[in-house]
Amino acid sequence: xxxxxxxxxxxxxxxxxxxxxxxxxxxxxxxxxxxxxxxxxxxxxxxxxxxxxxxxxxxxxxxxxxxxxxxxxxxxxxxxxxxxxxxxxxxxxxxxxxxxxxxxxxxxxxxxxxxxxxxxxxxxxxxxxxxxxxxxxxxxxxxxxxxxxxxxxxxxxxxxxxxxxxxxxxxxxxxxxxxxxxxxxxxxxxxxxxxxxxxxxxxxxxxxxxxxxxxxxxxxxxxxxxxxxxxxxxxxxxxxxxxxxxxxxxxxxxxxxxxxxxxxxxxxxxxxxxxxxxxxxxxxxxxxxxxxxxxxxxxxxxxxxxxxxxxxxxxxxxxxxxxxxxxxxxxxxxxxxxxxxxxxxxxxxxxxxxxxxxxxxxxxxxxx
Length: 368
What we know:
Blueprint: H1 2-14, H2 18-50, H3 53-61, H4 76-83, H5 86-94, H6 104-114, H7 118-127, H8 141-148, H9 151-159, H10 174-180, H11 184-192, H12 207-213, H13 217-225, H14 240-246, H15 250-258, H16 273-280, H17 283-291, H18 310-316, H19 320-328, H20 354-363
Helix pairs in contact: 1-2, 2-3, 2-4, 3-5, 4-5, 4-6, 6-7, 6-8, 7-9, 8-9, 8-10, 10-11, 10-12, 12-13, 12-14, 14-15, 14-16, 16-17, 16-18, 17-19, 18-19
């Protein structure tokens, strides 16, 4: 910049070359303007991160680029929507913000809904009607609103034409998202508006299965009363009881058993609900399953798992309380797998946790 003044401009002036002098001035002005805009825009992004509407207005009036993005791809609108700064959001839009640039509006609706800023979500929905098909970060506005329990935004999106059964790139529907987070009011509203909750042939998980996976017993009850199958199986042949047992959701396990879930159902590789619970160390679920009649000595019989029992896998995982519980319910401490593993043998295929082995050597005197 300094060179323009000290060299080119004086030289052009001395030589009487007006065109050259004017061109030099234009270059200087353009360079200054570009540098100024860059600085102002950088300051605008920082002000947006803070949610400072006063500074935002000053910077926009001086020419800061309201459509700019930071190194993470976040625009001022996105940042302000994330913080729930409705007045600042309105100001940017009123001053010419491009809502369709890089899915700006879509991404802002999603982040506002995720963070529970219903007022911002509603406002953006009113001025932007493109609510279907486009996705951001594997979410749609309806999916985000459903997961967050934002019933008002869900209603607005559906009224504007959002597809109640639309899937993200990963195959998730709004109902799945609401089911996982236990948003029962949203779940009911989506189902009332045609959301599918049965297990489709191409899906890995149904909303019922997902509710069991995340321990949302109220949602599980709703689906079952709507006709959901407590013994449905996904591609891996897992049932809702299996995933609830694996994740230790006792209330869901009890509910499913009361509704007729098959207690000794097996996956394709021979795992039962009791096997999952034993492996996961969920002693309360193990007790519940045993009291309900689960086969304590059920073996895996898929041809590759060496016919392990719940007791063997609990020992391998070092789940001392589960091991004690299984023994108390007559688990066979001398059961041997097809590859020769016995519970208390010092075998590398069984957990090396000495306290578990010592416990059985002292109290149960297995044949070793």
